[in-house]
Amino acid sequence: MTSSAPVPPPLALSLPVPAPLRERGISRAVAFSIPMTLRFRGITRREGVLLHGISGWGEFSPFSEYGTAESANWLRCAVEAATCDYPEMRRGEVGVNVTVPVVAPEHAHRIVSESGARTAKVKVADARSSLPEDAERLRAVRDALGPQGKIRVDANAAWDVAEASAALEVLEQAAGGLEYAEQPCPSLEELAELRRRIAVPIAADESIRRAGDPERAIAMEAADVVVVKVQPLGGVRRCLALAAASPVRVVVSSALETSIGLYTGYRLAASLESLDLDCGLGTASLLGADVLAETLRPTAGSLAVPQVRPVAEARAVAAVAADEATARAWQERLALCAELID
Questions:
Q1: Which of 65, 71, 78, 255 has the fewest CB atoms found within 10 Å of its own CB?
Q2: CA 229, CA 175: separation in Å to the nearest integer?
Q3: Active site residue 150
Q4: Is residue 176 a part of any domain in this protein?
Q5: Are both 299 and 318 inside the same structural domain?
Q6: Is 229 a catalytic residue?
Q7: Exactly one of 118, 121, 123, 142 is catalytic; which is it?
Q8: Same domain, 30 and 99
Q9: Interaxial angle between packed helices 161-175 and 188-197, expressed in degrees from 0 to 180 and rounded to the nearest 10
Q10: Dihedral Cα 309, 313, 314, 317, nearest 10 deg
Q11: Tell me: the pLDDT tens digits for 214-236?
Q12: Arithmetic mean of pLDDT, 98-126
């Protein structure tokens, strides 16, 4: 294990560390609340807790709809990041897709053009956007990427099988081909049925990380791609074991973390035995602030993964410190989850 030399943020910003976490080497917990640059995934602020331990920093930031049992996996990941060494990297650079929220076609075109990425992940099936509007956004993204670029869509489980089949036919035509459709339906059973109906490859995300049984998606032949998010699945080591056992391709994606959490995802991607899909880790631009002096942002569709762990910068953390009520809510959530981790 390595020791993180820089001094953590001031004690005044810290939460009480639950005893089970102190026993695992966690010395500091700081709640944050960061505005989003755009409404994304239905939220306008990203909140969570940074943990400081004997090896550095980890992030605990489960979304509000996650219960205690599900959120405990996110805490396992944070504790692993803050108290353990990362596995050895197999690659020094990781390809990253650009993420396109539900925005007007002109805005989508600008996002993709400025990113320099070769792959775009486009949000669709949002309550604020119709299918024709989604199709227009995809046409703009294709124009920005060019014919060789790859486009994937993410529906966040919005459709049933019949709706997904009809919508993806329209969207595939508008995009000039889709690399895959991420979580078009809620359940693994629906994904398996849809996969038998259409030619667009299917990626499983929420139905894997919320089912408590990631291997079930593979056994049911419900997906061509498994989306691996390091926090919801409980840490780098568990994700590596899942990827090693998977006969289908794996893509590493973020859960809208700060750069502390994103670094854990990058280290997972850098450690995978095989990685042939651009990762969904370029989401720092969706946050209006960060906890590092230098945010982890890909350039021209890739990021050189630092060997040295990032260190939360005291002034940056102070600037996004949660208010008293929010911090108290996270303190309670942290304590409940701490009782469940082993």
A1: 65
A2: 26
A3: no
A4: yes
A5: no
A6: yes
A7: 123
A8: no
A9: 50
A10: -100
A11: 677 778 889 999 999 999 999 99
A12: 96
